[in-house]
Batch of 2 targets.
Target 1
Amino acid sequence: VFGLSSVAQVVLGRGDFGQYLSINLGFGIGVTLGIHAAGGISGAHLNAAITLTHCILGNLPWRKLPAYLIGQFLGSFMAAATVFGIYYDALYDYTDGNFTVTGPTATASIFSTYPAPYVSLAGAFFSEFTATVMLILGILIIHDEKNNGALKGTQALVMGILVLGIGLGMGMNTGYAINPSRDLPPRIFTAIAGWGMEVFTAGNHWWWVPITAPTLGSLVGTLIHKLFIDFHNQPVLERGNEKGHPVLESS
């Protein structure tokens, strides 16, 4: 809701109610609050690609995957419906009732991502893949208690800053979906709500990229963390001893 509504204000307000930075902030705030809301219940699984990665690694039972995905997709779908309701009058005024995916009054990008006209499909795929690699690396680093993880209680805020940083640096080409759960359900909603099936054909049938590229990026990012960081982490006691700190032993 925070992310999509921030996009709606920028597009429908014609730049008078926010700029690109406000979109980045909106999604960062939304992620922070989502983690606070669900962190103690499910570990805050907000991203289908990351949830699938945890199942592959054995950190999450496969039997829980359907429930997590359904929760993510329903939440994202309802967020799109909520923002559509909030800004329906503004949408109608901006488009004269003609909801389009492309063109001077295109509004489908309020809800889902679309590649910039100058970006090839391969380039767009690589952008989403790389941004998701950075996302999962950041997540693993923030929660890495064997290394230099974020202070307890600050993880949600730092995660929001991580998403903000990805948007600031890697959002121009594709809108940084980096999450199948964030992109596909609102796309389905727009197909139902008046934009039609063009939401699946626009951008050289772009719709499948925000599903596959983040999934692959999450897996590769996890592998990079495992090879270059996690395998080199030392046990806490050993690391403290190397730095000259006493190692406490209990009988």
Target 2
Amino acid sequence: GTARHDREMAIQAKRNLSRTTDPVERLRLQCLARGSAGIKGLGRVFRIMDDDNSRTLDFKEFVKGLNDYAMMIDKEEAQEIFRIFDKDGNGTIDFDEFLVTLRPPMSKARKEIIMQAFRKLDKSGDGVITIEDLRGVYNAKHHPKYQNGDWTEDQVFRAFLDNFDSPYDKDGKVTTEEFMNYYAGVSASIDTDVYFIVMMKNAWKL
């Protein structure tokens, strides 16, 4: 179902793009027009450009990142977005904060069900999902690649975690932030809270 949601969301985002004048919303919609991983993809581009690992970008890097990701944004608009995110006016933006703000807003009900799923997976309760946590929740033996001998149990778990992990920094651990980011993308394609909650309950047997 996720592929269908993705397509619907992309079509919806393209439609809304022609209507909105808010620069941040325009950037968000351009990302979502690429599917639920669109915002994550922009994060990856910024990550690559952050040569000194400062996790911040100056205006020049910001514009280059947008261009590299083929975002249709003129210089004035980029300046306006940059100003909004450069809260203390020091000429740089924190890109974790930037990506969180770019994330489509979600209702309290949606955030709660996402956290329920996270807590179910986070067996050890330390706020990070690891392969160890998954052993108790997720049965790898039903996975086709495990059954035909291609993958070990650990490889099945790792591939599962990689879905939620930050694309530029796959470390086999999934934080609440990464889990939320992933589902914010999915959530953007689902209109009603009720439907979103039913989908999450079915997916995670909550």
